[in-house]
Design a protein that fits this description.
By secondary structure, this protein is of the alpha+beta class. It is built from 9 helices and 22 strands. The termini are far apart.
Length: 591
């Protein structure tokens, strides 16, 4: 039985997590639609709901996707059915995106329903379809994402604005928004598609942030002769007025709308009127939807900002409004983002893989620089270790021979006719690897010895006897000291690269971390996705740069201290040898 269970577990471990929609896409991510009590808390199912997907550096690998997001595809939970979607914004450099996906069936009270986001295809054409993202009842959706001109309706009805005197700005509730300064307005002209009826009703919704308290202004209104529907501010409080041509009814009591905070405001009018703020019904009245058309006006007298205006020719239910408020706003309780999966078997990546996928472009730049520094430092440590090792070994061999000299002949060890001695100034890696090794050529002590003997030989000439004056001995010592300094310079050559890696590596890593954290929080501020699961990968990825900086500094520090201690030991031996050698010369050639 145990063997059977083990076999079943092994088989389960080797099976892919779920079939892959299309093998031409290299990556996918599950997006859970949480409609349970801790999510959007839906009591009834909804059909053809446009759901906002917010992507940023903490929950999506922008490096693996195309620069314009053309390779993105959204697939239903069955991993077979493509979903309609369109991209409101895709900034691969800033690593943030706003994408609207039509979910055909949003189940109530469910925290396991999901859709799939596929990415990673180099050649596929863009699949964005703004008109197909909304149902036929959606008369207009204005994202206010245009860089200039009048705001455009992204639905198939093309109810574009005719007049706009406000200003545009970034960092709204959903990407870009529009700003009103008290005298600005936005006018959407009347059209046949904007007609509403008592039988079906109407739904208006938008995001609003007030800049001043106590203002009297119009958020949005539709006017057709003596018939109108108006959502306004009365001394800073929300009020709704519906006029069917014979009677005007308003919501009571008035509703507070605090300044400086984004609010989702929605109005449904049918056989009664309901006003919602942030997905909660805050007021209602018996006002009935009039049969009317007419132009729509936004922001008359408003001092504040508006984003994401939507209008439907049906009265959407309370669950629809709640799904919009909790799916689009900063809390984003409707959508929960899973980890990325790779095409090979569809399995989840490791935590370290998730972190690396979340590293921003600036982070990779810093990491690449640090890797280059690590490569240079490693090369320096390896070559200096070889040079110092060969030098130390040759010095020991030379000193053994030097101290074995008999009598007063100090010149016995000097091979004046050895061709290798012509290259004694070269004590680098090339000399050690490819030079002569038959006459102490790798010994720094021999090079000092050779310089001293050459000074003695120049003074001796053809004479059989030589007597050196104190001045001559001082000159020879100066030559020996100069050679010693040059030998120290050779030994310490390139060691400065290790000190640069030790001191500069952590600072470069810290720079990458700070910039990465700034980008992560900027993306979160822009997208409004503030849950820990979304923030953690971006922060962890930013810290990779610091880890890389420390990873460069630590081996460089160990190598620098080890090599430095050996260089000091060789330098001390050279100082001792200079004193010993000059004393032997004085003893041999002085009276």
């Amino acid at each position: 039985m145990i063997r059977i269970l083990f076999s079943l577990l092994l088989l389960a471990a080797t099976l892919p997590a779920q079939a892959w929609w299309n093998d031409e896409w290299s990556s996918r991510k599950a997006i859970t639609l949480n409609t349970a009590a801790d999510g959007a808390d839906l009591k009834a199912g909804l059909a053809n709901v446009p759901v906002l997907v917010r992507l940023h550096t903490g929950n999506f690998d922008f490096v693996s996707a195309r620069e314009d997001g053309a390779d993105l595809r959204f697939i239903a939970e069955d991993d077979k059915t493509p979903l309609k979607f369109h991209i409101e914004k895709f900034d691969s450099l800033g690593e943030m995106a706003m994408i609207w996906v039509q979910v055909p069936n949003l189940q109530p009270g469910n925290n396991t329903q999901k859709i799939w986001l596929y990415s990673g295809h180099e050649e596929v054409a863009a699949g964005s379809d703004a008109k197909g993202t909304y149902d036929v009842n959606q008369l207009g959706v204005w994202h206010f994402a245009e860089s200039s001109g009048t705001p455009q309706d992204v639905t198939g009805y093309a109810n574009h604005a005719r007049e706009f005197t406000g200003a545009r700005f970034s960092g709204a509730a959903i990407g870009e928004g529009i700003k009103f300064e008290g005298e600005s307005t936005l006018v959407i002209p009347a059209s046949p598609s904007l007609k509403i009826s008592r039988a079906a009703g109407v739904t208006f919704s938008t995001w609003v942030r007030l800049s001043t308290e106590g203002q009297n202004s119009v958020l949005f209104s539709q006017q057709d002769g003596d018939k109108s529907i108006v959502v306004a501010l009365n001394s800073g409080k929300l009020v709704v007025a519906v006029n069917d041509g014979s009677v005007s009814l308003s919501t009571e009591p008035l509703v507070d709308l605090p300044v400086g905070v984004w609010h989702h405001v929605a109005l449904t009018v049918e056989e009664g009127t309901a006003l919602f703020v942030n997905g909660q019904k805050v007021a209602e009245s018996t006002a009935i939807c009039p049969d009317m058309g007419g132009e729509i006006t936004l922001g008359r007298g408003l001092v504040g900002e508006i984003d994401e205006l939507a209008m439907s020719n049906v009265a959407r239910g309370e669950d629809w409004v709640r799904a919009a408020a909790l799916g689009q706003g900063a809390e984003a309780k409707l959508t929960v983002y899973g980890e990325s999966e790779e095409a090979e078997g569809g399995g989840e990546t490791s935590y370290f893989g998730v972190i690396l996928q979340s590293v921003t472009l600036d982070g990779w730049v810093v990491i690449v620089i640090l890797m280059i520094m690590l490569g240079i430092s490693t090369m320096v440590m390896v070559t200096k270790s070889m040079v110092i090792g060969k030098t130390d070994k040759a010095n020991r061999q030379f000193m053994e021979a030097f101290r074995g000299l008999k009598g007063g002949d100090t010149a016995t060890l000097d091979a004046d006719d050895n061709p290798a001695d012509a290259d004694l100034k070269d004590a680098g890696l090339a000399s050690i690897m490819f030079g002569h090794h038959d006459h102490f050529q790798n010994s720094s002590l021999y090079r000092i010895y050779h310089a001293g003997i050459q000074e003695v030989k120049k003074r001796k000439g053809e004479r059989t006897q030589l007597e050196l004056s104190p001045q001559a001995l001082n000159t020879i010592r100066a030559t020996l000291d100069g050679t010693l300094v040059r030998e120290n310079q050779k030994l310490n050559n390139l060691m400065v690269l290790l000190t640069i890696a030790i001191s500069g590596g952590p600072f470069l890593g810290l720079l990458g971390t700070v910039i990465g954290v700034m980008i992560t929080f900027a993306a979160i501020a822009a997208t409004g996705d503030v849950n820990v699961a979304a923030i953690a990968p971006g922060i962890a990825a930013a810290l990779v740069a610091t880890a890389a900086g420390v990873g460069v500094a630590i081996p460089s520090l160990f190598g620098y201290n080890y090599l430095g201690s050996r260089i000091k030991s060789i330098s001390a031996d050279m100082h001792v040898f200079v004193d010993e050698y000059i004393a032997k010369i004085a003893e041999t050639y002085s009276r």
